[in-house]
Write a structure and sequence with these properties.
With 115 residues, this protein is of the alpha+beta class. The protein has a single domain, classed as Winged helix-like DNA-binding domain superfamily/Winged helix DNA-binding domain (Arc Repressor Mutant, subunit A). Helices cover 50% and strands 15% of the residues. The chain has a 4-stranded antiparallel sheet. The longest helix is centred in the middle third of the chain and has 13 residues. The protein is elongated. It starts with a strand and ends in a 7-residue tail after the last helix. This is HTH arsR-type domain-containing protein. InterPro entries: ArsR-like_HTH, HTH_ArsR_DNA-bd_dom, HTH_MetalResp_TranReg, WH-like_DNA-bd_sf, WH_DNA-bd_sf. Keywords: DNA-binding, Transcription, Transcription regulation. It holds the Pfam family HTH_20.
Length: 115
């Protein structure tokens, strides 16, 4: 039976620090839709396996990744809900961003009248 490790939710500051590094953002892009083994993640980089492991550790510590063991393999996936504290933080500074985006799109691309 595979062992699943669920990290706890982290503060927005830890998530923002983890997201500050472009390699870590790329790791999250790789695992955003499906679990990947550590070796496959590492193969996507010119970094050493140890450097990739350190980046994965930072992402796990920030609560951005889940780790599931399957035999000797470790599988990683993005915890989408871990981004919510950052979304909430940013919404404090940018509360009407989506409505302004919607208005701009509708202004630039009006819908044709209904018949």
């Amino acid at each position: 039976m595979a062992e699943q490790k669920q990290p706890t939710s982290a503060a927005p500051d830890a998530v923002l620090r983890a997201l500050a590094d472009p390699h870590r953002r790329q790791i999250l892009r790789l695992v955003q839709h499906a679990e990947l083994p550590a070796g496959q993640i590492a193969a996507s980089f010119t970094l050493t396996q140890q450097a990739v492991s350190q980046h994965i550790g930072v992402l796990k510590q920030a609560g951005l990744l889940t780790e599931r063991r399957e035999g000797t393999r470790r599988l990683y996936a993005l915890r989408h809900e871990s981004l919510e504290p950052v979304r909430e933080l940013l919404s404090e500074f940018w509360p009407d961003a989506l409505s302004r985006l919607k208005q701009a799109i509708e202004t630039d691309h009006p819908r044709p009248p209904k018949r």
